Amino acid sequence: MNIWIAAVLAVMVSMPVHAATEIAPHVDQITFKKGADTVKFARSIKGPLTAQYRLNAKAGQMMTVDFKSSNASAYFNITAKGADYALFNGSIMGNHFLGPLPADGEYTVQVYLMRNAARRNEVANYSLSLSLSSGDATDSNQPFDQTLELQGIGFHVTSVSVDGNRTLRIAPQGLEIDNSEIVRPLTCTIVRAEVADLDRNGSPEIYVFIRSPGRGMPGELIAYAANRKKSLSEIYLPPVSENPKTAVGYQGEDEFAVVENTLVQRFPVYDSTDADAGGTGKIRQVQYTLVPGEAGWILRAFGVTEY
Q: In which domain, by residue range, is 189 found?
């Protein structure tokens, strides 16, 4: 009898908070209105209560999820029905997901509080944006216009057409010496931009994430660092092919995100680099730290994981 009781207690301890307390999640079945590919929610959760957003999708479709919360202990996960592992774990991967879905079926985006916060019955007010689009192409004509600011330095990031060619423009504001606009050609779509201070030196960096959805299409990072708030220098990201630990099974489809004080790069892993290779169902994640180089700044890989 004592063995049986111990076993039951062990199972209860290992259960998620919401299961152990038998509180059913709030569930929304997502359907998109005609002509729309994005839904947005502004909700709250408290304690062990979780929220689930379920939708049906096809293999290869691109899903984008953006999450903001008033509580730093709130995150979201993405799981596929019947899968043995999470497609995305927000507690270690951040508040943004962009990637191709690996299979046909139902997917669940679950919003939750970490166990300690749930036990304290904390509240998280959050906004969630979820987009689902075809993975066959990307709308290269979609405009981008965003201004970001950190540590007194601003960056106005836009995509414009010059002589029929799309370009990226980064206009810094507040630098002491040189606020010249940076202009770069665009071959893909700007996904988003983020401002950060990865090296914690008191001068910010601007990161612009670019990609063209589809197998074999690598993502691109365009980034600049403010040198003691005086001028901008380019940040160099070495190609995946230069690192044997990351190159095996790489076929593009990258996504990038700033997570705490690191840059994270994620992409699906294939059996090989051959065009007809099958997918392994795994995602590889590479973490980078920002370090000074001889003529600028370099993102140096320091951690590679798969899940």
A: 145-306
Task: Examine residue 140 and state whether it is found in any structural domain, yes or no.
Answer: no
The residue-averaged pLDDT of 178-188 equals: 89
Number of domains in the chain: 2
**Start-to-end Cα distance in the chain:** 39
Residues 116 and 175 in one domain: no
If asked whether residues 199 and 253 sit together in one domain, one would say yes
Lowest mean pLDDT among 15-19, 35-39, 159-163, 183-187: 15-19
CATH number at residue 91: 2.60.120.380
Give the model's pLDDT for residue 210.
87
Q: What is the mean pLDDT of residues 141-145?
A: 74
Mean pLDDT over 153-164 rounds to 86
| Length of the chain (residues) | 307
